[in-house]
Automatic annotation (TrEMBL):
Organism: Amygdalobacter indicium
Similarity section: Belongs to the RutC family.
InterPro entries reported in the protein's UniProt record: RidA, RutC-like_sf, YjgF/YER057c/UK114
Name of the protein described by the UniProt record: RidA family protein
Length: 130
């Protein structure tokens, strides 16, 4: 009989709680799948106004969740960035680059019609032990 894979649910009180029926992150083996993180400050429940500050907050939320698995941003192998306005790409990219160093994760970024809570950015990542 096949053994079912074990899925660990990860969460951090330093990142905002899920606003729907999903986990902040799940871990299967050595791989962590972090759900899209809105730029919500877990302590205040607020979002900063600028795209730069929102990108920073989303990435800080991701870092807090990865820490629960004993990982850092250097474990990120793939990222998906959703923007409410593609014209914010350069400002987002400038902040994003401060959170990673070579070898950089694979990434896609694109504009969407609208993000939850009218956020300017939402970022999801996949991380793995290297």
């Amino acid at each position: 009989m096949e053994e079912l894979m074990s899925i660990n649910v990860l969460s951090s009180d330093k990142a905002p709680a899920a606003i729907g029926p999903y986990s902040q992150a799940t871990q299967v083996g050595n791989t962590v799948y972090v759900s899209g993180q809105l730029p919500i400050d877990a302590q205040t429940g607020t979002m900063p106004p600028s795209i730069a500050a929102q990108t920073t907050q989303s990435l800080q939320n991701i870092a807090a969740i990865l820490k629960e698995a004993g990982m850092t941003m250097q474990n990120v192998v793939q990222a998906t960035v959703l923007l409410s306005d593609i014209n914010d790409f350069s400002a987002m990219n400038e902040v994003y680059g401060k959170f990673f160093q070579a070898p950089y994760p694979a990434r896609m970024a694109y504009q969407v019609a609208c993000l939850p809570k009218n956020a300017k950015v939402e970022i999801a990542v996949i991380a793995a032990e290297k």
